[in-house]
Specification:
Elements lengths: L3 H19 L12 H4 L3 H12 L13 E2 L14 E2 L3 H17 L2 H17 L1 H12 L3 H8 L1 H18 L5 E8 L2 E14 L2 E5 L5 H13 L4 E5 L6 H16 L7 E3 L7 H8 L4 E7 L2 H10 L4 E5 L5 E4 L5 H13 L11 E5 L3 E3 L2 E3 L1 H16 L2 H8 L5 H11 L5 E3 L18 E6 L4 H4 L7 E7 L2 H15 L3 E5 L3 H14 L2 E4 L32 H5 L2 E9 L13
Parallel strand pairs: 5-6, 5-8, 6-7, 8-9, 10-11, 10-17, 11-16, 15-16, 17-18
Antiparallel strand pairs: 1-2, 3-4, 4-19, 12-13, 14-15
Helix pairs in contact: 1-5, 1-8, 3-6, 5-8, 5-10, 6-7, 6-10, 7-8, 8-9, 13-14, 18-19
C-alpha cells in the first residue's frame, strides 16, 4: 500500500515533476510573508519562536557530549544559543542503528516523509527567516524568501528528482527468452533499492538552508540517514530544520536519529575531516571555499562528494539599447546581500573604446560611472539600502574590502559604512568598484573576491572580452555569466563562451530578473562542468548516485509456449 504521507502530498510531488520537465514557473510554497498565505499570527509567532531560542540551550533528543555554540549576529544582537556537542563515533553509531529500518522502508515512504518535513518547515518559515537573518546577515525579506520558501522549493525539487529516479526501477520483472523449438527460458527478477548509507551535509554560513536542503532531501528521499553539520556561524537555521525532521520521523514510526545535528564551535577543521573521512560516511554535500571543497574531493574517497565552491562570475558588455536599465540591473546585482552570494557578479568587461547604444557610442568611463551612479542611488537612503544590502556575515569580508582598496587601483566607487536604523551595531557595507585592465591585471580579477567587491575591466573589445570570460569560467570556475549586446552574432558568441566555460548565461537583463537569482524547477544552479561546482542543483546526476540497485533472479515456469509469442 502507498504510504499515507506520500498520498497526502502526491499532488504536490506530481506538480513538481511536471514543472521540472517543462522548466516553467511554479512554487509550492508562498514566497511572500503574507497573513493570507501563512495566517494572521504567523509573523508574530515566528518572531517569538526565534527569540525563545536566544540565550537558551537548543534541545535535541539525540546522543550528545557537552554543548557548543558561538554564533554572532551580523546585526549585533546577542544570540548565546547552546547546541548539543557530539562524539564522532557515538553520532555515527546512532545514525547507523537508525538507518537500518529506514533503509528497508519503501521509496514512497522515504519520499512521503520528506514531503511532510518540507510542509512542516514551510509552516515555520517566519522562525527560520529570523534565524537566517541573524546568522547570515541577510535582510529579512531575503531571509524569508531564500531561507524559507525558495529553500523549500529546492528541497522539493531534489525529492522530485529522487522519486523520478526511484520510480524507474520496478520491484519485480518477468523475463522470458525464446529458444526456438525448445521451451523458453523464464526467470523472475527482483530489484531492491539499497541506499548508500550515511550522508553528511556540510553547510555554509551565507545560505545554510538554500544550499543545504538539496543535499539533505536528496539523501533522505533515497533512504539514507543524514548528519547535518552546519557552519559554526550559522547553526540555528539547520538546527530548527533537524528538529522538525526528527519530529516527523518519530511520528512516522522511525528512529529520529535518521537525521542528526553535528554542531561545532569555530575552527572545527579537524572535527570535519574526521567526520568526512569516516568509512561509514558514503555521501557528502559541501558548500564553501575552494580549498575545503578540493580537499574533500581529493581525500574523501569512500564517499560520493558533491561540492559547490568559489567562482569568478562575469558580465560582458558589448552594446545595449537600454543603458539606464542595464546599469540599474547590474547595480542591484552588486548590492543584493552585499554580493555575499555564490552567483553575484564580480568582473564587468567593457571595451576601452566604449559601447554602442541607440544614442551613439558611450565611452568606457561613462559606462562605469552609470553603474556606479546606480549603486549610489540604491544605497543613498540607509533605511532603504539596508533592506537590500543586509549585513556583512563575518569580519573576513570587511577585511577583504580593505585589501582590495590597498591594491592601488583607480576607485570608481568606494565602499561606505552605513548605520542600520534598527540595529546600530550591524556590519553594513556598500559595494566597492575598482577599475582594472584586462591586459595587465588578470592575476587580480581571476581570484574570487567574495563580498561587495567588483571590477570594471577595460578590454580591447568584445572580441577579447567574450573568450576571456569563457576561459576564466573554465579555468577558475563560475556559476553565472551575463552579457549585454544588440548584435545577434555577439549573442551567439556569448552562448559559445558559456558552453566553453560550462556556465549559465543570462542575456540583456534590464528588468526584474537578476543574474544572481536562480529559480527552482526551471534554472539549473551550477553545471558541475567547471571548478566552481562538481554538481548541479538539481539534475538526475545529483540524486542517482545516492542509492544502488541490487537484483536477484530465479527460474520460474514459462508463461508462454513455443507456439505463443511471449507478449501475447
Amino acid at each position: 500500500m502507498t504510504h499515507p504521507l506520500f498520498a497526502k502530498h502526491q499532488s504536490t510531488l506530481e506538480r513538481a515533476l511536471q514543472t521540472a520537465e517543462q522548466r516553467g514557473y511554479w512554487s509550492a510554497y508562498p514566497e511572500m510573508p503574507s497573513p493570507r498565505a501563512y495566517g494572521e499570527t504567523a509573523a508574530a509567532d515566528g518572531e517569538a519562536a526565534f527569540k525563545a531560542h536566544l540565550g537558551k540551550s537548543f534541545t535535541l533528543d539525540q546522543p550528545g557530549v557537552g554543548t557548543v555554540g558561538r554564533e554572532v549576529s551580523p546585526y549585533g544582537i546577542e544570540l548565546n544559543i547552546q547546541y548539543p556537542g557530539f562524539a564522532t563515533e557515538t553520532l555515527l553509531s546512532a545514525a547507523n542503528q537508525a538507518r537500518k529500518a529506514w533503509s528497508l522502508a519503501s521509496p514512497d515512504t522515504w519520499v512521503g516523509v520528506s514531503l511532510e518535513i518540507l510542509a512542516r518547515l514551510n509552516a515555520h518559515s517566519f522562525e527560520i527567516a529570523h534565524s537566517v537573518m541573524h546568522t547570515t546577515g541577510q535582510a529579512f525579506m531575503m531571509a524569508f524568501q531564500a531561507g524559507g520558501p525558495h529553500a523549500q522549493d529546492r528541497g522539493l525539487e531534489a525529492v522530485a528528482y529522487a522519486w523520478n529516479e526511484l520510480r524507474r526501477v520496478p520491484a519485480t520483472a518477468y523475463w522470458e527468452k525464446p529458444q526456438g523449438k525448445n521451451p523458453p527460458l523464464a526467470m523472475e527478477k527482483r530489484y531492491t533499492i539499497v541506499p548508500r548509507g550515511i550522508a553528511l551535509v556540510l553547510g555554509c554560513c551565507t545560505f545554510p538552508t538554500w544550499n543545504g536542503y538539496p543535499g539533505l532531501f536528496a539523501s533522505l528521499a533515497t533512504g539514507n540517514a543524514v548528519i547535518v553539520k552546519p557552519h559554526p556561524g550559522a547553526i540555528l537555521p539547520l538546527a530548527i530544520t533537524v528538529k522538525i525532521a526528527r519530529e516527523v520521523l518519530a511520528e512516522a514510526g522511525f528512529d529520529p536519529n535518521v537525521v542528526m545535528l553535528a554542531a561545532t564551535n569555530p575552527n572545527d577543521g579537524e572535527i570535519v575531516q574526521k567526520l568526512a573521512l569516516h568509512p561509514d560516511v558514503r555521501v557528502i554535500d559541501f558548500t564553501g571555499s575552494t580549498r575545503n571543497g578540493d580537499w574533500l574531493e581529493q581525500n574523501a574517497h569512500q564517499a560520493h562528494v558533491f561540492t559547490e565552491k568559489a567562482g569568478v562570475n562575469q558580465i560582458v558588455i558589448d552594446s545595449t539599447d537600454d543603458l539606464k536599465g542595464m546599469a540599474r540591473n547590474i547595480a542591484f546585482s552588486l548590492a543584493l546581500y552585499a554580493s555575499q552570494m555564490c552567483t553575484a557578479p564580480q568582473n564587468i568587461y567593457i571595451p576601452r573604446s566604449g559601447i554602442r547604444t541607440p544614442e551613439g557610442t558611450v565611452p568606457f568611463d561613462e559606462v562605469a560611472q552609470a553603474i556606479a551612479a546606480s549603486v549610489q542611488k540604491l544605497c543613498g537612503d540607509p533605511a532603504k539600502a539596508v533592506e537590500i544590502l543586509g549585513a556583512i556575515q563575518n569580519e573576513g569580508i570587511a577585511a577583504r574590502i580593505d585589501e582590495a582598496r590597498a591594491l592601488g587601483k583607480p576607485v570608481v566607487l568606494d565602499s561606505q559604512t552605513l548605520v542600520h536604523p534598527v540595529y546600530p551595531d550591524a556590519r553594513i557595507r556598500t559595494p566597492l568598484l575598482l577599475q582594472l585592465d584586462a591586459n595587465t591585471d588578470e592575476a587580480i580579477f581571476t581570484r574570487e573576491w567574495f563580498g561587495p567587491i567588483a571590477f570594471v575591466i577595460a578590454t580591447d573589445g568584445t572580441q577579447q572580452s567574450m573568450p576571456l570570460a569563457g576561459r576564466i569560467a573554465a579555468e577558475h570556475g563560475a556559476l553565472t555569466l551575463s552579457a549585454y549586446t544588440t548584435d545577434a552574432q555577439v549573442a551567439d558568441a556569448a552562448h559559445e563562451a558559456s558552453v566553453q566555460g560550462n556556465v549559465a548565461l543570462s542575456l540583456n537583463l534590464t528588468g526584474g530578473v537578476f543574474v544572481n537569482q536562480s529559480a527552482a524547477f526551471s534554472d539549473f544552479h551550477g553545471t558541475g562542468g567547471n571548478p566552481a561546482a562538481n554538481a548541479s542543483l538539481t539534475d538526475a546526476a545529483f540524486v542517482a548516485n545516492r542509492f544502488r540497485v541490487v537484483q536477484s533472479r530465479r527460474h520460474v515456469p514459462a508463461r508462454s509456449t513455443a507456439d505463443t509469442p511471449p507478449n501475447a
